[in-house]
Write a structure and sequence with these properties.
Mean pLDDT: 84
Structural class: alpha+beta
Order of helices and strands: EEHHHEEEH
Number of strands: 5
Strand order of the largest sheet: 3-4-5
Radius of gyration: 15 Å
CATH class: Alpha Beta
Number of helices: 4
CATH topology: Nuclear Transport Factor 2, Chain: A
Number of domains: 1
CATH architecture: Roll
Low-confidence stretches: 119-124
C-alpha cells in the first residue's frame, strides 16, 4: 500500500488517487522545488528555485556553477526537515543541464542519488 499521493496527481488503474512509495515521494518533493518558479505559488511566492527557466539560458560553465549554488540553497531551505543535501552536481550536456542531487533522507539515514534533466523531464 502506498503511503503518499503521487506527483503529479493522477488516478491509478482502479480509478483512485495514485499513491507512491516514500522514496519516490522524496524524489517528487525535490522535483517540485527544482521545477517550481518563484512566484508560481500564490500562498508561497518565494517557493522553488526556477530551474525550468535556466534551461533556456545560454549554456555555459558559469551557468552550471550558478545553478549548482541555486539548487543546493533551495533544497536546503525548503526540504531541510526531509533531507540533508550532500552534494549537487550540474553538468552542461549539449543544450541541456543535468542536475544530480546526492542527499540523505533524515527519516531513514539512507543516502540517495537522483538525476534531473532539462525540458523533457520538466514536462513530466
Amino acid at each position: 500500500m502506498a503511503d503518499y499521493l503521487d506527483f503529479p496527481f493522477h488516478l491509478d488503474a482502479r480509478g483512485r488517487s495514485a499513491g507512491t512509495t516514500p522514496d519516490d515521494h522524496v524524489r517528487d518533493l525535490i522535483f517540485q522545488v527544482l521545477f517550481t518558479s518563484p512566484g508560481e505559488r500564490v500562498n508561497r511566492p518565494d517557493f522553488g528555485c526556477g530551474l525550468r527557466q535556466l534551461v533556456f539560458m545560454p549554456n555555459s560553465d558559469a551557468l552550471a556553477t550558478a545553478t549548482q549554488q541555486l539548487v543546493q540553497a533551495s533544497l536546503q531551505r525548503w526540504l531541510q526537515d526531509v533531507i540533508r543535501v550532500e552534494r549537487v552536481e550540474v553538468n552542461s550536456i549539449d543544450s541541456s543541464l543535468e542536475v544530480t542531487v546526492v542527499y540523505t533522507r533524515l527519516d531513514t539515514g539512507e543516502q540517495r542519488r537522483d538525476v534531473f534533466s532539462g525540458p523533457a523531464e520538466a514536462s513530466r
